[in-house]
Model the fold of this input.
Amino acid sequence: MDAKELRNRFTDYMRQQGYSKTPADSLVCDTFPTCFTISGGPNFVDRYLKGHQSSSENTVVIQRCHRFWDVEKVGDGKHLSAFEMAVTTSFNGYPREEMHRSHYKFLTEECGLNPDFFTVTIFGGGKCYDAEFKADEEAMRIWKKLGIKRFSIQQGFGISPYHKREVNASFVANTVEPVGGPRTEIYYGDLEIWTSVNYCTFVEYKHNSNSFTFKPIDHHTFASGFGIERVVMAITGYKTIDEVVPSRHAASPRVRDHVRGLVLLAHDGAFELHGRKNSSRKTILNRYVRSLFTSLVDPALLSSLVAESTEFYKDELPTLDGKADEISDKILARAGKLKIKL
Done:
């Protein structure tokens, strides 16, 4: 199964379960004012909680994502900076157990993954600054009911040596997402392939103290999903994630990843961002362009790689058709502005 087939099968399957397909958000999204869209859950939850809501809403989306913090990891066989997430969201809609069951059945029955190789992470509770969060016993009960045998309980919060603030790998609270809560994940062997977040709290980052404050969310809100490319890797048995998106050209995984990312960013208007409010986004984009040309041995390959990327995404983004030359010119113009020697 390739990425295109997985996109379509997931969407069709979830629509049969009663989810309504919703358009993907732009990578330039108000929910993430300091970066680009990082996943397919917080943006829809944030918008719902700000008043764009119905009495009950269950949605499915294929969301394009950009993870600026994974740029340096690209090429390790597991990470991409540009990828797609297959996500369902529930706002006062389907109960959490129903969503988890649908995803579990899709992964095991539609994708053919062996649940004997699943290890599930669970939030074990703990205190983060002045807020106390209970262990996610609901998630444990759901997974046991579905037959999961192996668990990894992530209990308590500890100071991250890198971020210098309190973290828990199974609890979403960071500097860019406005909502958070307990997270449960599925690992297939040692590869994390699926995640679900119970959005139970607003998260406000305090720059001065490098800490968080929390405010409970009263609505029934959560999202579940997986990276398209990682699940294709698990299905096919590819040794690296870089094999998931084939290329006719002899370019490194980092180069191909960055070109795909820049094509998506160009499509969503990232090259046209101006003003102080977009300073963080512009910095991320400029670093991304520099990273590309640090690894691109033959700049003449750029136009061919851009054309290949627009072809790969044209089913989800038909407006990319015929835009390869225009996008190549934008990337080269930005490189020139940054005084990158080609």
About this structure: The longest strand covers residues 57-66.
